[in-house]
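REQUEST FORM: STRUCTURE PREDICTION
Request ID: SP-0412
Submitted by: Lab K.M.
Chain count: 1
Length (residues): 157
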Amino acid sequence: MDALVLVAFLLLALGMVGSVVPLLPSGLSSLAGVLLYWWHTGDPNPLVLAVLVVLSLAAFLVDWFGGALAANAGGASTRTTLIAALVGLLLVPLGGPIGIVLGIAATVFVLEYVRHGNEREGLKSALYATAGVLASAAIQLLLTGIVFAVMLAVYFL
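STATUS: Completed
RESULT:
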């Protein structure tokens, strides 16, 4: 395995890790690994390359918008969603992935409770937001894992 192929697979692995570790780009790392490998080797074929690009971009979109969409589905306002995302990012150094999830849930709960004056609405929005963050990570891991597995098959076959 030459150096560029190794770097491509390290980027693919980083994509999987980035699915569950905040602030590491999942889909974009996978995409970079696929494109580097393709540029260096000419493989995979155009159809497989297109599918891998779409899967990587889907992971990127889920990373950026999955949690916010779930929070909005739970009734949280766009303002609440943006503030919760900011609080989650600020808590990453203190609590890692758990800090981001708890920070988002608590922020959504408090802001939506204040907005509606009803703890039930706050709790509902917080649960949706939390489920969205966790589901987003799971979906990203699935997508980047598929990309990684297909690239292993391309390499070994």
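NOTES: The mean pLDDT is 93.
Reviewed by: T.R.
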